[in-house]
Amino acid sequence: MRTATDLPDNVREQLEFGDLNPKFFPAYDAMRDGRAPDLSTIEPAFRAFIKRWPESETGRGMLSTFVRLKLATDAALTEVFVLEYFADSPNRHAREYVKDRLRFFELSKQPFALAFTAIDGREVDLKKLRGKVVLIDFWATWCGPCIEELPNVKRVFADYHDKGFEIVSVSLDAERDRQKFIDLVAEEGTIWPQRFEDKGWKDPLVAKYTILGIPAMFLFDQDGMLVSTNARDPMLESEVRRLLGI
């Protein structure tokens, strides 16, 4: 198929994406192991793909992934700094992602406001958690990486809750998964409050906070200010310790 001269563009695009995607796998493995990923082959291949396919919708999701990997290469980098390099990307969907994400950071210039009734009836209001380090964990029962990350989240909560660390979870499950969600929360013994609005990806928070993939783990300092949108794996504990001054 790759050598065919009459292959439709949409098929060729997917073939090229299929060739590109595995290049990211070693970088994912490095991040899981707490190592800085090597982007020396990924970055030029990614940039070439979005230039070649300016209307590819995969540009949005791939840019989100690339930014996360890029940030892991250098602790001094900021997401805004990396995003601005793609503000004039040849790929329309990548440009829209940059625009949406920068809007998110504008929203983040003031303390987050989120209030809801948890699935167990508890009233949750981030304003009442000022003075605590707070993690908002966007997840779903069908999300493999979310379930994979859960033991780490539970361990950090157990180790630092009594020192001033709180967790609030936001489920992106749909109504059809309500019982599965209830059963999993009970099985895992997660005692922090869970927001379940049964809207899945149509949850208004998804658009408001530019959430393209989960787990999306937003970490807030004691003033309610956002300090990380990727507080997972070893970074979660290190950031919690830093904010708690431990």
What does this structure look like?
- The chain has 246 residues and is α/β, with parallel strands linked by helices.
- It has ten helices and seven strands.
- The chain has helices at residues 9-20, 25-32, 42-52, 58-73, 79-84, 92-107, 144-160, 178-188, 204-208, 234-244; strands spanning 115-117, 123-125, 133-139, 165-171, 194-196, 216-220, 226-228.
- The strands form two sheets. A five-stranded mixed sheet has the order 5-4-3-6-7, covered by helices on one side.
- A hairpin with a 5-residue loop joins strand 6 (216-220) and strand 7.
- Helix 3 (42-52) runs antiparallel to helix 4, helix 4 (58-73) crosses helix 6 and helix 7 (144-160) packs parallel to helix 10 (234-244).
- Taken from the alpha-carbon principal axes, the silhouette is globular
Mean pLDDT across all residues, rounded?
91
The first-to-last residue Cα distance is 57 Å
Oligomer: single chain
TL;DR?
The chain is an alpha/beta fold and 246 residues long. It has helices at 9-20, 25-32, 42-52, 58-73, 79-84, 92-107, 144-160, 178-188, 204-208, 234-244; strands spanning 115-117, 123-125, 133-139, 165-171, 194-196, 216-220, 226-228.
Task: List its salient traits.
five-stranded mixed β-sheet; 7 strands; two-stranded antiparallel sheet; 10 helices; globular; alpha/beta; 246 residues
Summarize the topology.
Blueprint: H1 9-20, H2 25-32, H3 42-52, H4 58-73, H5 79-84, H6 92-107, E1 115-117, E2 123-125, E3 133-139, H7 144-160, E4 165-171, H8 178-188, E5 194-196, H9 204-208, E6 216-220, E7 226-228, H10 234-244
Parallel strand pairs: 3-4, 4-5
Antiparallel strand pairs: 1-2, 3-6, 6-7
